[in-house]
Amino acid sequence: MSNFNKNLLTPCPVLQPTEEEFLDPVGYLSSKPISELGKIYGIVKIIPPLNWKPKFQISSSFKFHVRQQVISDLGITTRSRNFFKENLNRFLKMRRKKLVKLYFKVDGQKVYYYDLYCLIEKMGGHQAIKNWREVNELFKVDPKSKAIELEYDSAIKYYANYLNNNQNYDFPESDSEDEDNCMVCGDNDDPEETLLCDNCDNAYHMKCLNPPLTQVPVTNWYCDKCLIGTGEYGFEENPEIKYNIPEFYEMCQEFDKEFSKNYNNGERLTLDQIEKKFWSFVDIEKSDLEVKYGADIHNLRPGEISGFPMMNTPDLDLNDPVNQYYINHPYNLTKLPFAKGSLLNYINTSISGMTVPWIYIGSLLSTFCWHVEDHYTLSANYCHFGATKKWYGIPSAFSDSFENLMKKSAPDLFQKQPDLLHQLVTLMSPMKIIENGIPCVYADQNPNEFVITYPKVYHAGFNCGFNFNEAVNFAMNDWLEFGDRSISEYRPIKKENVFNYYELVENILKKFNKETDKFENLELVRKSIDILQNFIQNQNKLISQIQQKKLSIEYRPKHYKQRQFDAEQKGEVIEVFEEENLCSGCKTHLGFQYCILGDEEFKAVEEKKAVNSQLLTPEPSPKEAVKKDQPPNIHALANSNSSNELSQLNKIKCEMDEFDQLISQAKKRSFEEESKEDSTSKRRKSKRILSLEEKQKIIAPPKMKRSRTKKIDPASKKICLSCVLDEKDISSDTKLIYQNYPQEISDLIEISKYNLRTLEYV
């Protein structure tokens, strides 16, 4: 049983607004006392007035896919340990060494290989450790014991050297249409000189590896991607299987009975028992407990968009005043994003999952992992019916501390996946969070209840059984600074912007100037002026630097596709997507000015990406290699934890003992003798290579080169001003594009200031 103790958690505020307050959700939630609760707790639960009971409206045709979730895979520590073990064992196979389990024991203490690796790296690498006494003490082992040091030297040390030599995680991507082509050059010639990774089966020319291999490995061979790992994790989903609600409910009932039988002698578990079981499964190192979750369902056919009534809900009596009341109620989640006071009224697109609800159909223990909402907006989640949904939240004041704790718990995962916390695939127990001085708030959401999360509040949770929820986003005045913050924090991790934040701010000022006498929210105007002014000042600085390159300038006014609602006729919510306008480098919206790379520079950028994606090739048996040539990724190597050991950059030497040198020399002599007898006998065999050989023997076609060609997407040449200045050389055929001239935006700001002063004076 888990050490989970609910008494250490903080219950969230439970709010019961009056009918009048309930008619103005944004006004109520942004009022000073409620807003303060949001800042302190991060999440609040709202219980509607007693007479507010909208009928559930989902068409009988509604069907959905489900995700398969293995609960033990979601824990950040458990997954990190498993990933490390798998990658380490591939490396050990190449060295023909004994494979390892998750941990080894010393003096009865478990020492996880991943934990040991992270600790040694944190201490500066094995070459920095003069005395292993401190390491032993941290693992609660006899300070004089040599067991940990010996195990590290045997299993981890050479793998750590390899990782420190390969710190770029931009791996080449496979092309399903040309799966036999070399991953580096894209050609499929020279099958005799082609290796296939023993894990992913991708093809590589030996000459294309970095450095090239001159002999075929006599053992297993793995590519960099499979030795280092990408840290990628996702939920499996069978696209061919869909459930309707009765089918999924019946399956949930069967699972609940089996679960009670296996874990509580057939007796129904209480909510507290379920909660403790859930977190114990998260911490289990290996568990085959798999659950199904209908998450992020975004059907767009009438009757399948939302559980709330809509104008286009089939067979709904639109003449019934009760139906009209709930269709137009601001807490109907199809209306909440655009309720009075929501700043999402100022975006020009309809966004699935943000302004159009996503549906969530839960089963026992199905999970939503730690995350914040896109652009740190607020979220509203409503439970139509079913079992309790458990929520956990981190107040926004502690969001940075929470992120640091997660990164500290799995540093290698965050190196490979900087946007890990935006992927909704990672859990950490609230107990671990509280142990590190971070408060954790909880909510138990039941049918006919809302849970609201405030800006940049990390939240996670799970379902205690079958239920039906849906969620959308909205934004209030206090969110505006968080939206600005999201842009700066998205850029380093290349998190795609969902909408154009600065365009939203621009639209606020435009509306204010158009309806000055009617516009009541002057504080919003002040904030918008400051934010847009800071943005334009920064853009102007970047433009002045770029203009020194004397680039050609082009004006391309943007034509928006406006959000469309056919409320009068069909009440149909139509998703409209504007032209992709993200920076190809950092994935932020391009703003009012950006660049289009010239052909020369675009080619240089692509070539640089290709070079960066080539990592140091592990030798056929990495421990046997005497020396390598200087690798191109010299900066990563120089800054690595093993830089002292590998200080001679022009002659990088791998550590080895005398025994390994003798083996290496013997193998070299053996290979040379055998290669004289049969030049092809040592090529590693593979079903795919054999198949290729057989085809060549039967058909005997002439050797041909088939390059993997990719169509250049024009959008891939668009780049923001910051990213273009990151490039050392800007080619002369690069263009500076104005969607709006800087003076236009500056004029908008000045007019807004004038109108604001006029109102304040009056």
Short description:
This protein is an alpha+beta fold and 762 residues long. The chain contains 23 helices and 26 strands.
Could you walk me through the main structural features you see in this protein, from its secondary elements to its overall organization?
It is a single chain. This protein is an alpha+beta fold and 762 residues long. The chain has 3 domains: 6-15 and 42-66 and 241-479, Cupin (Jelly Rolls); 76-170 and 177-231 and 610-683, no CATH class; 500-597 and 708-762, no CATH class. Helices cover 36% and strands 14% of the residues. It contains 23 helices and 26 strands. A 9-stranded mixed sheet has the order 2-3-16-13-18-11-10-4-9. Strands 1-15-14-17-12 form a 5-stranded mixed sheet, with no helix packed on it. A hairpin with a 5-residue loop joins β20 (564-566) and β21. The longest helix is centred in the C-terminal third of the chain and has 26 residues, at 522-547. The radius of gyration is 30 Å and the shape is globular.
- Total of DSSP H or I helical runs spanning 4+ residues: 23
Give the helix/strand class.
alpha+beta
Distance between the termini: 67 Å
Strand content: 5-15%
Report strand order across the widest sheet: 2-3-16-13-18-11-10-4-9
Based on Cα principal axes, name the global outline.
globular
Helix content: 25-40%
Number of strands: 26
Overall pLDDT: 83
Alpha-carbon Rg, integer: 30 Å
CATH domain topology of the largest domain: Jelly Rolls
CATH architecture of the largest domain: Sandwich
